[in-house]
Amino acid sequence: MHKLNFKSSVVSIVSSHSRDGLASFTGLEVARSSGTVCLSHFPGGAFCIGRRHSTSSDAVTYDKTGAPVRGKNYNKFLNRKSLGNFRYSSQNDDNTVRSPPPIINNLPSRKPLHQSTDIQGSTKSLHPGSNNSGDLKSQLRKAYDDALHFCHSKKLPEDVDPSAVFACNRLNLRDIEVYGFDYDYTLVCYRKDLETLIYNLGREVLLDRFKYPEAIRKLEYDPGFAVRGLHYDIKKGLLLKVDCFMQVQLGSVYRGLSAVKDEEVLELYGSRKIPVTYIEPPHQYNTPNTESLNMAQLADLFSLPEMNLLCNVTEYLHQNGIDYHPESLFRDVKESVQSIHPVMHQIVSKNPEKYLEFDPFMREYLKTLRDNGKNVFLITNSPYNFVNKGLSYTVGEDWQNFFDVVVVAARKPHFFSSDSIPFRVYDPTLDARLWEKVTKMESGQIYYGGTLKQFQSLTGWKGDKVVYFGDHAYTDLADVTLHHGWRTGAIIKELEHEIETLNSPDFKSAMNWLQFLTSLLETYQDLEDPEAQQIIKEWWHERNLIRKKTKAIFNPQFGSLFRTHLNPTFFSKRLFRFADIYTSSVTNLMKYSTRHTFYPRRGESR
After folding, report:
1. 506 is catalytic
2. Among 146, 184, 300, 580, which one carries the catalytic annotation?
3. What is the pLDDT of residues 173-187, one digit of tens each?
4. Which parts of the chain are coiled coil (predicted)?
């Protein structure tokens, strides 16, 4: 939808797709104080470059002669060496601003796309074989140059605050009486050293217990190989990126560390679209037994070292001609990594400074919640001693004073769906669980196991008065929002890096030009003239080059956590389904009062 303002011979356009809170040119759900710049053209030659909520200094409007009506020239285009061969000057030889000519789309909206209208309004046939191909070729070249010129004149979107909180669903904190938190990657985040530790410990088990080749001991962890949200095809032994429509992103499918050619991917799956029953079984939110899975998703950050170990071993076996069964390899690696958690907990507890990130605002945030009369609880799958060491380091030795209820070893997501496991009180001095029946939940006590049904019965904390924060869309958020009515907040540590990447001038400029180039392709793609088709082919090639380069800015193999080339990722759409709000850190909420209301924004990426 576009908003049109007609005045005299001037037509201006401002996109309503862009909204406060969404950068529509990326599809990533991030806050932005003003909309994405857009360009359009109307019959008669008038066009505009503008922004939603724009002022006279940040929107440029041109009349049908190409003369600027208001505004000024803006930042030059991106570093041309880094993102494409964009060679067009936005200035004349005397350094004055060049007025854009009246061309971007000279095809009237009511005429077939194999016909063109010149500036005087006469219609020319553009069928192959006509004698107008030379004029058409010049016209297309001019359209490209003009689009590039207009792109130069656009003011880049304002930066996004990497520490902001973003809303998928309206959330009024006035209504929230109870705040709940997961522990790992929510209250406490980890350094890359922990991923390396998990990888190394899992590799040793794979060698010692499963007797894999000794050469695997030399395979090191690569923290930059994979991103969260990917899928691993257990049956085919492939790591791949899937979008919200269950489509494989070609160019982001790997067997081990080697990219799989698009032709082979299409042959293996029959098409880019994967059946929903293959990728997403109906009972997935309760973490089904992996024996019944075709695909496993890397839904949390702990899965990154596991997947890197799996891909390293796959690459070694494949390159050395060693026969292996993908599903057996997957289960060996998974069992190896899962078995090392007790050892990992001990190592981290002895040296929290090496493995934990210290958040200087966590204690203050928890205190703020208590000072505002909020009830606070912790439900985590981690054991008490591990949690105690971590929160003692990040919050203080008296961390339990900030929580009304603490539940450890909860076995989520079964905690949310089971009703058969009772709570037991844990005595830290005895390092033992007591047998007395739990009839009430008290501050200062540590509770093991239990179920959500018992938790709600004993505390009275139910429904939309409760908000729960976690990092795992399925284990932490899905069940409590779908079946129990809790409000939810997702903590996505990578969000900060993604937003910082979006804020870079090179990326913004590249995405602006990608939009212009796509508009040209959409407009002229149906022309039948052979020379026109050759030019359009060049545009497609340039567009693909930009897409590959912008993908590599996030991650060379898999790109952005939130976006494929065309659509939101499978991960991001599930996240937005289960999370009312999301941010990169719990303590980002300190920027808002406990009376704040978070509002979702309309946009194209949902």
Report:
1. no
2. 184
3. 999 999 999 999 999
4. none
Cα(336)–Cα(308) distance, integer angstroms: 13
Q: Which of 88-97, 192-201, 333-342 has the lowest mean pLDDT?
A: 88-97
* Amino acid code (one letter) for 375: N
Q: Are 184 and 383 in contact (CB under 8 A)?
A: no
pTM of the full predicted structure? 0.78
Catalytic residue among 58, 146, 182, 529: 182
pLDDT at 566: 86
The distance between the two most distant Cα atoms of the chain, rounded to a whole number of Å, is 94
- Show the CA angle centred on residue 410, arms to residues 408 and 416, nearest 5°: 140
- CA distances for 24 relative to 28, 133, 342, 507, 568, angstroms: 7, 36, 44, 14, 11
- Class of residue 594 by CB neighbours under 10 A (exposed 0-12, middle 13-18, buried 19+): middle
Please state, in angstroms and rounded to a whole number, the distance separating the CA atoms of residues 187 and 379: 11
pLDDT tens digits for range 551-576: 999 999 999 999 998 899 999 999 98
Q: Rounded distance, CA 336 to CA 67, Å?
A: 68
Task: Answer yes or no: are the C-beta atoms of 324 and 217 closer than 8 Å.
Answer: no
pLDDT, tens digit, for every residue of 106-121? 333 333 334 444 433 3
184 is catalytic: yes
How far is residue 175's CA from residue 594's CA, in Å, rounded to a whole number?
A: 9
